[in-house]
Amino acid sequence: MAETPKLIDSKGKRLDGRKANELRPLTIEAGTLKRADGSAYLEWGNNKVMAAVYGPRECHPRHMAHPARALVRVTYNMASFSVGDRKRPGPDRRSTEISKVTSEAFASVVFLEQFPRSSIDVFVEILQADAGTRVAALTAVAVALADAGIPMKSLLAGVAFGKIGGTVVLDLGKDEDNYGEADVPLAIIPRTEEIVLLQMDGDLTAKEFQKGMKMAIAAAKEIYEVQKDALKRRYAVSVEALEAEEGAEEELKEETVEEEA
Ligand code: UDP
Q: Is 245 inside a domain boundary?
């Protein structure tokens, strides 16, 4: 058996040089897909994720429609080429589970009762995976839903903490996920600090768990800023485009008036 690598040194530095409470670099772009009602592209460390939202729209098949509210249906898919060992294409137990828990997390923040009999369909493609793809997906979907104009109580931030070499750390990388002792992915409402998804793989003491939760809540607020910034940038671009359009219309009007005079 391969020897477990030393995941954290005596100074608390991790394999990629991060401190215990440090996230991998995160960037988000909103509105990257023209044909979707809302979309977001996210890079988080070596993870690359695309999220697309369609709806609210008529729910098909009709028998699944709820008379009083909308359904949020998330489909998480990991591309064959996203991981080192080619992944067999198509759904599997893992993607079904991630789709289910992500749908449930968003059902707790979207104002579903505003859209009876409808569905809000969300598709997540993991283009490159390096551990933490479900929380990366959650973070991207929140931005894509906001981009689609879906009314929500708040954005959700996905983030994970875990334990490596006996130390509680934030946002596990691939080796840390493989050889670490625990991994706890979460979906958090950053403003209210409510937890709407919590999964746990491995063992932690109550004290370690509390320490990790504190780190994750602080990180969710950081992630929230990146999400809001992506949406602001998207909006700023739209305003510029609108102004350019209005400018062109004004010019055309002036030209017509001159011609008529
Ligand atoms: N992974 C893989 N092949 C698979 C599923 C997962 O190589 O079929 C890798 C991938 O890098 C993923 C990591 O294992 O990010 C951890 O997977 P896990 O099920 O813990 O979910 P995640 O941490 O991505 O939310």
A: no
Ligand 1 pocket check for 175: Cβ under 6 Å:
no
More confident residue, 245 or 171: 171
Atom of ligand 1 nearest to the CA of 85: 7
Ligand 1 within 6 A of 83 CB? yes
**In 80-213, beta strands by DSSP E:** 118-128, 157-164, 167-170, 182-189, 194-198, 201-202
Query: How do residues 71-110 score in pLDDT, each as one tens digit?
Result: 999 999 999 999 999 999 999 999 999 999 999 999 999 9
Q: Whose CA is nearest to atom 13 of ligand 1?
A: 131
Whether the CB of 87 sits within 6 Å of ligand 1 = yes
| Beta-bridge mates of residue 50 | 41, 125
Report yes or no on 8 lying in a domain.
no
Q: Whose structure tokens read 């700023």? A: 236
Residue 153: CATH number of its domain: 3.30.230.70
Inside any domain, residue 55? yes
> With contact defined as beta carbons under 8 Å apart, do 147 and 157 qualify?
no
Q: Could you give the number of structural domains in the chain?
A: 1
CA of 94 to the centre of ligand 1 (A): 9
Contact 59, 117 (CB under 8 A): yes
Domain carrying residue 71: 26-227
Which of the four pLDDT bands, split at 50, 70 and 90, describes residue 2?
low
Assess if residue 100 is contained within a domain. yes
- The ligand 1 atom nearest the CA atom of 129: 11
